[in-house]
Amino acid sequence: MAVSFRMSNLRHIRTGEKMECLWCGKPLWGRSDKKFCDAGCRSTYHNARRKREGEEVKKVNRFLARNYNVLKSLDQRHVKCISIGKLTEMGFNPGYFTGSRIPGPRPGRKAGTVVYFCYDYSYTLNRTHLYLHSVRKEI
Ligand SMILES: [Zn+2]
């Protein structure tokens, strides 16, 4: 059965001293730390929260997988530099990466340059281009 999820159901509604069930919003009576009117509301609330969290993880994983595939295809074609415009056309989203670090200066790289990682690929970005490095251990 599909559960319709409403963000408002995740909020702990507190109106003065009046407490409401986190799932259905009915007034609560009894202990002050009570959050749900019954086990059914508690279970439905937690199931909906887990489902939402799972969907968020899947969404981020899809972006990371797409970015990884773009970097892999560049690597396979020995492309070391590509414009952000072309990257975007290929489906790359620079907002998603698996890690980043600022290594010390070395010839050819400005101090403070952020190196981004997408699994074992690493790259740097400037305003117009992405520069693909090789695997993580070589940084
Ligand atoms: Zn309830």
Sequence-ordered SSE layout with sheet pairings:
Blueprint: E1 14-15, E2 18-19, H1 39-76, E3 81-83, H2 84-89, E4 99-101, E5 115-118, E6 121-125, E7 129-135
Antiparallel strand pairs: 1-2, 3-7, 4-5, 5-6, 6-7
Bound molecules: zinc ion.
Zinc ion (ZN) binds next to loops.
Number of domains: 1
The percent range for helix content is 25-40%
> How many helices does DSSP assign?
2
Q: Low-confidence stretches at least 5 residues in length (pLDDT < 50)?
A: 7-15
Give the beta-strand count: 7
* Overall morphology: elongated
Bound molecules: zinc ion
Average per-residue pLDDT, rounded, comes to 85
Please write the string of helix (H) and strand (E) elements: EEHEHEEEE
Strand fraction equals 15-25%
Distance between the termini: 49 Å
Please compute the radius of gyration using only Cα atoms: 23 Å
The major β-sheet equals:
5 strands, antiparallel
Q: Return the structural class.
A: alpha+beta
Q: Major sheet: order of its strands?
A: 3-7-6-5-4
Explain what you see.
- This protein is α+β, with helices and mostly antiparallel strands and 139 residues long.
- It has one domain (7-138).
- 32% of the residues lie in helices and 19% in strands.
- It has 2 helices and 7 strands.
- The protein has a 5-stranded antiparallel β-sheet. A two-stranded antiparallel ribbon has the order 1-2.
- A hairpin with a 2-residue loop joins strand 5 and strand 6.
- It is elongated.
- The termini are far apart.
- The model is unreliable at 7-15 (pLDDT under 50).
- Zinc ion (ZN) binds next to loops.
